[in-house]
Amino acid sequence: MSSETMESKQQRPLGVLAALPQELGDLVDAMRAEGGLRTVTVGRRDYHVGTVHRVPCVVTLARIGKVAAAATASALIHVFDVEAIVFTGVAGGVGSHVRVGDVVVANALLQHDLDASPLFPRYEVPLLGVTHFAADLALADELAAACERFVADEGAALAEQFRLNGARVHRGLVISGDRFVSSSEEVGALRAALPEALAVEMEGAAIAQVCYEHDVPCAIVRTISDTADDHASASFTSFLTDIAHAYSSGILRRFLEARAGA
Ligand code: SAH
Fold this sequence. Notes:
By secondary structure, the protein is α/β, with parallel strands linked by helices. It has one domain: Nucleoside phosphorylase domain (Rossmann fold, 3-Layer(aba) Sandwich). The chain contains eight helices and ten strands. The longest helix is centred in the middle third of the chain and has 26 residues, at 137-162. It starts with a helix and ends with a helix. It binds S-adenosyl-L-homocysteine. The site of S-adenosyl-L-homocysteine has 19 residues, from strand 5, strand 9, strand 10 and helix 7. S-adenosyl-L-homocysteine (SAH) binds next to strand 5, strand 9, strand 10 and helix 7.
């Protein structure tokens, strides 16, 4: 590839987003080490602009919840003109075969707490006519491939270190809502209503909606920190403190290195 083509290809940065600092792993440090970063504050958030693993990126924290996520995705698109958005973080496992330490890459996302019925069908975004927002297939494929490499390289060691049952990569539906789901009753109700859901979290579908509205590709990866049941709070807290950083760092590094080499 000529340097001119590479330049035009790399002109627009990739937006990389998480809700909480642990979920970004070592990304901001890696950016700082790789030639520095410029920090721009917009809407009470710091956006770090620079290069990570040779990919131009804008890295930031959305904070928790759908509104925070949508606002951050909008700024990435309008202020930073990102070419695509990748979200990394933790989630509660909902699918019966999804365990703590597994990774879920979203194929589609839905807002499980959205209900304007009977005016509009349950889960449908009113006046947009969409319930399931698709992740960008190519980007999700790249992300899933990075997860597979991460699990192959580091899964066994992580499982031993943190006493996980191993780590597997799943693809499928991720559901989002403004609730930390933490009871067997509530996760059971979600399972019954949305049997294909693999994971529940609080940001992904909001980002997917904003990206859909602006034709910006997006992909979302979630490491399972809990199973959204009565033990969710303790499991979430210890996973976030001890493990989330390692997963995000390992997955994002492989994802970005592959992108830089592509
Ligand atoms: N009780 C926690 C709540 C944090 S919110 C606290 O006090 O800090 C949980 C964050 O992780 C959100 O950003 C969400 O996207 C994700 N998440 C992890 N497990 C979840 C679950 N069981 N339900 C909803 N979101 C979950």
